[in-house]
């Protein structure tokens, strides 16, 4: 696990509490960092594999 907690804490400290835009930016950065850490669900990976297989089958063979 990476030490992104420290990065989030630093971002939160850098925002000025009297500036609403800075608060929004800080929260958006923290949200973005947390989403980056999430794993892709297996069902999405399976779906992507199925879509790739269908696409490969529908393309004509160029190596003939």
- End-to-end separation in angstroms reads 48 Å
Low-confidence stretches: none
Q: Please count the beta strands (DSSP E, at least 2 residues each).
A: 0
Write down the overall geometry: elongated
Strand and helix order: HHH
Number of helical elements: 3
Written account of the structure:
- This protein is mainly alpha-helical.
- It has one domain.
- The protein is built from three helices and no strands.
- α1 (4-14) runs antiparallel to α2.
- The longest helix is centred in the middle third of the chain and has 18 residues, at 20-37.
- It is elongated.
- The mean pLDDT is 80.
Characteristic key phrases:
elongated, mainly alpha, 72% helix, 64 residues, 0% strand
SSE layout:
Layout: H1 4-14, H2 20-37, H3 42-58
Quick summary of this structure?
The chain has 64 residues and is an all-alpha fold. Helix content is 72%, strand content 0%. Helix 1 runs antiparallel to helix 2.
């Amino acid at each position: 696990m990476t030490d992104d907690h420290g990065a989030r804490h630093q971002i939160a400290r850098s925002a000025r509490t009297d500036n609403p835009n800075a608060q929004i930016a800080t929260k958006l950065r923290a949200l973005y960092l947390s989403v980056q850490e999430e794993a892709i669900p297996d069902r999405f990976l399976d779906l992507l594999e199925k879509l790739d297989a269908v696409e490969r089958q529908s393309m004509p063979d160029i190596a003939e």
